[in-house]
């Protein structure tokens, strides 16, 4: 009983942190796009953004730690540290919900965990990445979180997840569009100034 509660609530709290972090960043992006371009509002916005970022980074880290705790609880109390059991459980769940057994879906959960940990490390170490990489990572994380919170979840978590996803989806689209627009703009500028095709960028801000 305790193991089941721990497994359920660690993932619910992790997803709450996930939603809060993405919503905070995406709302900041939307506000940034709408503010005046004069120096004073931009400087004030940047200062406020930096303060908010520090809080959001802790929320993102807490969510990651909660998800790690969820994985540990799931393997301890449900799968008994057996990858085979986890694979079979995933196959049974996909069969029940989608009509198709897909045990390899467990690997998407593993990738989700690794990407979340890597992104947290990126934030704390201030590693710079291309914007399209950030966008691709968050799209993948959002897709997996969507499936976990809505498709394969039941009870009160599902309607709450639907409301959160509906509210966040336009902001996520704006975020992805901005990353690809910035990439296209930088490539066009490099072609114009150098007459050469742009090299792959590796120094974009870690904007999450």
Automatic annotation (TrEMBL):
Keyword tags: Membrane, Transmembrane, Transmembrane helix
Residues annotated as transmembrane: 12-34, 55-77, 106-125, 132-152, 158-177
Name used for this protein in its record: Uncharacterized protein
